[in-house]
Write a structure and sequence with these properties.
This protein is an all-alpha fold. The chain has one domain (about 5-150). It contains six helices and no strands. The chain has helices spanning about 5-25, 30-45, 50-65, 70-85, 95-115, 120-150. The longest helix is centred in the C-terminal third of the chain and has 32 residues, at about 120-150. The protein starts with a helix and ends with a helix. About 20% of the residues are buried.
């Protein structure tokens, strides 16, 4: 995946996230940026970008959508570290391990968002609902692409 495609996907996801926030359903949807990163890990035929890319991606998301620069930077840094230094490819993990990792990273992200933006009632709903929705998105990706992955093993 080229840098141009990554920038284009990021711009489209920013626009989509603004639409979701302004329509008031952001709290009830899976996290777009977490879904993009796990899609990179699952569908990218080449090596994933460096950790610097994940930190920059998190910084831009924090600057555009939050008043603080901590939640997405920390979360995407953890994901970048895992993807770049893991001994096994993401696809080689079992589905249960993948779901647990996505659920855990979603809980961390939403706990940080809740900590920095606890004045909003809807952030509490997101804290409870978003990890489940992110896991369901991954299950859908897994079901759709498992035959392709099994052929490549």
């Amino acid at each position: 995946m080229t840098d141009f495609v990554r920038v284009l996907i990021f711009c489209i996801s920013v626009i989509l996230n603004y639409i979701l926030i302004n329509s008031g359903i952001w709290h009830l949807m899976p996290d777009i940026f977490i879904c993009i990163v796990i899609s990179y890990a699952a569908l990218s035929p080449v090596k994933l970008p460096s950790i610097n890319y994940f930190v920059l991606f998190g910084f831009l998301v924090d600057i555009l959508f939050l008043n603080s620069t901590m939640p997405y930077i920390l979360t995407l840094l953890l994901m970048g570290l895992y993807f770049n230094f893991s001994q096994r490819w993401w696809i080689q993990l079992s589905l249960l391990e993948q779901i647990l990792l996505i659920f855990l990273i979603s809980v961390i992200l939403n706990a940080l968002i809740f900590f920095f933006h606890s004045s909003s009632e809807m952030v509490y709903i997101r804290l409870l609902l978003n990890p489940i929705l992110n896991s369901l998105v991954w299950i859908l990706i897994f079901i759709l692409y498992r035959k392709t992955w099994l052929k490549n093993i």
